[in-house]
Amino acid sequence: xxRARSTTLAILAGxxxxxxxxxxxxxxxxxxxxxxxxxxxxAAYATIEGKGSTWxxxxxxxxxxxxxxxxxxxxxxxxxxxAGRKAFADGTVDYAISEIPYQxxxxxxxQADKSDRDYAYLPIVAGGTSFTYQLKIGTxxxxxxxxxxxxxxxxxxxxxxxxxxxQITRDNNGRKFxxxxxxxxxxxxxxxxxxxxxxxxxxxxxSIWRPYFGKSGLTSYFPKKGRQIAQAGSDQVMNTIKGFAxxxxxxxxxxxxxxxxxxxxxxxxxxxxxxxEPTTFNVAVALTRAKIDPATLTxxxxxxxxxxxxxxxxxxxxxxxxxxTSADDPRMTTAKRQTLADFLYHSxxxxxxxxxxxxxxxxxxxxxxxxxxxxxxLKAADPAVVLTNRDVKSxxxxxxxxxxxxxxxxxxxxxxxxxxxxxxxxxxxxxTGTGAPSTxxxxxxxxxxxxxxxxxxxxxxxxxxxxxPPVVDPETGEVVAAGSTGGSTAGGEVYANPLLVSDRPAxxxxxxxxxxxxxxxxxxxxxxxxxxLRRRRAAxxxx
Length: 543
Hints:
Elements: H1 3-27, E1 48-52, H2 57-68, E2 74-78, H3 81-89, E3 95-98, E4 104-105, E5 112-113, E6 119-133, E7 136-137, E8 140-141, E9 146-147, H4 149-155, H5 166-171, E10 183-187, H6 192-204, H7 206-213, E11 229-231, H8 234-242, E12 249-254, H9 256-261, E13 267-269, E14 275-276, H10 280-286, E15 291-292, E16 299-300, H11 302-305, E17 316-324, H12 334-348, H13 365-381, H14 409-413, E18 471-472, E19 479-481, H15 505-542
Parallel strand pairs: 1-2, 1-3, 9-13, 10-11, 10-12
Antiparallel strand pairs: 3-17, 4-5, 6-12, 6-17, 7-8, 13-14, 15-16, 18-19
Helix pairs in contact: 1-15, 6-7, 12-13
């Protein structure tokens, strides 16, 4: 046998060995090697698709990005809660997300709002329905607006129509705003955000809401009247308000939208007489009074609206995923159920650590435990689904106290409101929409300090130290001689993110072998081929 031929055979043998090594590495994945509750790759994944809420879309998109590197392909379209519930009922998606359960009948179309497909509700994230706005004094955006719940209800039922209304001035301790028409921006589509907002108005201000709506109860379709503007989706509501022609507008969206857009939100009065914004802490405090319907795991929020804690944000709630539970669901396979189960494990545990940064609030222990109960229905439908070690003990959730799971860590450490947030005091100069708490220090945080001395009866915004206050027309609230801008943007969110769910060890071992194989193929094989070529050339030259 020639030397060249023997070298060629050695190379081929080497390639065969590499193939065997690769096969051995892949075959070494055990059928079940759980770590942090994540199933092994023995349970294959398949793409899952969902539709629904825009209220929770921003955090859901974040979780989808997190799990993509784990091999999970999750697709989600924010089309509104009503459309999401319908898509699930029609069997065109694998899951849906909504802020409210099926209502029986869709009030707009008259069609059934229910599902014959077996399902379960599963809480996924908490948050606050906020009121973001564009209101300028001269060229300066107001960032510390305060409104009572009654004022909010009157604005969205067209009883208060101008920003210089006496009730708004009273809410802001005498600070008067310009005589600008108020333009409420509402949702045009069937919306869980609308349902959350109107449920609150119906419960707390029925004498204001019900004559406007024409009946009692919540609605997913806001009854647009007068100069109100209707937009589809939370992102379009936000874009309208922050747009070039948005001065005078106010709309309702989940706090994540203004927070991520760098836009202010209204501080809403609570039962303790403080004006608060829906930070992750204030929502966590409010939801300590949430009750759960044991039959459906849906939320009962009356006690949340009336929580007497000075830190509580009244319009706090949470969102649900709707998951399929039937063993013979035509859309579901073992791979799809496994993807859904692993995605939910990340969402309920490590994914909750991102909630605060994105303008939401993490779920509490009882809701996460309820979520795990619902996830188990995926395995009940298909025993091949792997759910090893899924419980609160393995869950990296920032509300949990490892020593006492009955404590809500966020609620325990939530800061008390500043004295300037109390009714009859302030208003605080701290700008809103950053997630940071208010402060009593003049000019600290936000971009407050731009409102001037206001009308009679209060000092309005205090300017930042060293800044000259603007001169304001006492009748219109317009700036006639501007001083320098007060305050500076507050520091980062007071919130730490736990690490993402750990990689599966089987994945690490597999890719470790593949890295060795790749190194061999890149370093050793080229040298062997070069050696063969040289020998062939030498042999040819010697003939």
